[in-house]
# Entry
Amino acid sequence: MSEEYPYAQRFGVVRGMPERGRPREEILAELAVMAREEDAAWEGGRVSGTMYAGDHAHYRFLTEAFGRFAHASALQRDLCPSATRFEGEVIAMALDLMHAGAVTDAEPVGMLTTGGTGSILHALLAYREDARARRGITTPNIVKPETGHPAFDKASHLFGIECRTVPVDPATTLVRPQDMAAAIDASTIALVGSAGNYPYGTIDPIAELGALAQERGIGLHVDACLGGFILPFAEELGYAVPAFDLRIPGVTSISADTHKYGYALKGSSLVLFRDRSLRNSQYFHVAGWSGGKYMSPGMEGSRSVGLLAATWAAMVSLGRDGYRRHAAEILGTADRLMAAVTSHPELRLMGSPVFCFSFTSDVFDVYHVNDCMKARGWRFNGQQYPNAIHMAVTRPQTQPGVVEAFATDLAEAVAYARAEQAAGRPATSGAIYGGVAGGLTSEVEDFMLMVMAGILDSQMALPDMDER
Ligand SMILES: *Cc1c(COP(=O)(O)O)cnc(C)c1O
# Structure
């Protein structure tokens, strides 16, 4: 079968609820086989992003913390005051990292969500509710640089907000404040800036955007989902990182993913607000329900306390010192990887990134490079407009030998790309966030729907195979 369904043949396909359960040991053995084989793909350090810690000892520790509370519901606080402790302390640590202490004119607060998208959804919902209540805005819009994450488009779609997209300066990959200003009108509720953005890892001019937001009396959300837990340490380590956090007066909210460079388990992120009133504007409660008075701070109802415990455990086990140490290794590795890229005159780095970078080529289709690197076990994310290769440097790349292997393979890939281009052959990689395989055709949307159906529906449609 295709590489998307490698288990159908080996383990069979469950097509309905089995009448009889299977022994636990047998199930665990099957899971162990799948996990071992899938981990092997990134353990060597050839995968961009995704496995930010990539450290099995750390994962075992988090899993033990998770396991102690996995079954507990964060909705039932009387049964688990621990959830209140974990959540409150995680928020306190994140606020400290984002310099909440510098805020004197407001009351900084935060909330935990299940991912970067969740954090962005909550921020936009808060801006919408707050703008409706305070300014009577009923047809809200936000203004984001084109490099801003699709979660802003998604939130806008879900919440009836217009998402205005502003092109970036191709030379720097950064948005120009005057272009953002031109897109603002009386119904604008917030601006968006990224620190750093996903495509290029570069940091928008947050100080200027903050001044603009203040001048117009609107919010500024800083998307630090990617950079939130590494850029503060890059700054401490002396890298040229502009301030992007609550020290900037116009910054009214920040998203930061603990499940990326926070080295927590997947399913955890933070959204911080400069002022309590903005966060509280999006709380939801139903006082008159027959099931009792209902309230939940965010989009979710029941949540596992395990994720809160694991996030807390990750943060208190590392501390500033641990994060700084990991950041130093990652940033040093990123410098060396970028040096390998810029040693080839055919390749061009996009903007001035620090920990996550992209490169393109003005000489050949850079996807030829991706094709060749892919055959050598590298997995980057393909980008478009222009075609570019994206590498978020994580701890697995800091292992000995990875930078050297990258340099060697890249040199071969550049030669391969030159030859393919000269022969007039098209590249085979495509630009899909998250790395699902396949090239884009002119029927882009049909193709994207087909990919999603392939993920959720195809397992049941797989042809019959030998059951074990
Ligand atoms: C990852 C990311 C997000 C979205 O986060 P999810 O955790 O995938 O929902 C948003 N913005 C940036 C810059 C990111 O890198």
Notes: Residues 332 and 361 are 24 Å apart (CA to CA).
